[in-house]
Specification:
alpha/beta; 5 helices; about 45% helix
């Protein structure tokens, strides 16, 4: 079965890319893999707790410092899980927002929070028949240039890449 991967972030350009990717998936009798890359949650609590404990600046912790550090790690894990669920919900809303364009197509939702967007899209498309990405477009002479993420995808993807450019105001 053909696989069409599309990067989405909720911008107008990514919605156009999503619609076009859905048409490609339908035309190929394949499935659509919508990829949403979100900002990762950094392990702030655990890093702070470990640093403070290691520096001996936590005298009241006594023998409980290991317990407190474990609690901090648990808190960070909960925050990462919460961020992942929020990203998955946002991705579902984005895909749903294009309505009829995705009706009747198998859509795989992939939310990634531990990679740079171009790396995430490249990895998600290793088995794909097509990767579709939007390009912000810069207008004028700069409009000849692709955005950094789309350019990385064009240069390094193992499948064909379709870059959706903004429609001109003309």
């Amino acid at each position: 079965m053909a696989v069409v991967v599309v990067g989405v972030d909720g911008s107008a350009q990514s919605l156009e890319a999503l619609k076009l990717a859905a048409r490609e998936a339908r035309w190929r009798s394949g499935q659509l893999r919508a990829v949403y890359v979100y900002e990762p949650v950094r392990p702030r609590q655990a890093e702070t707790a470990a640093t403070v404990a290691a520096a001996g600046m936590w005298p009241s912790a006594g023998n409980r410092s290991g317990e407190l550090i474990a609690d901090a790690y648990r808190h960070d894990d909960e925050e990462r899980e919460h961020a992942r669920r929020r990203a998955e919900e946002q991705l579902r809303r984005i895909v749903t927002s294009v309505g009829d364009d995705v009706d009747g197509i198998a859509v795989e939702h992939v939310a990634i929070g531990d990679r740079h967007p171009s790396e995430a899209l490249l990895r998600a498309s290793t088995d794909a028949d097509l990767l579709v990405v939007g390009s912000r477009g810069l207008g004028g002479f700069g409009g000849l240039l692709l955005g950094s993420i789309s350019q990385q995808c064009v240069q390094h993807a193992t499948c064909p890449v379709l870059v959706v450019r903004p429609r001109s105001a003309d």
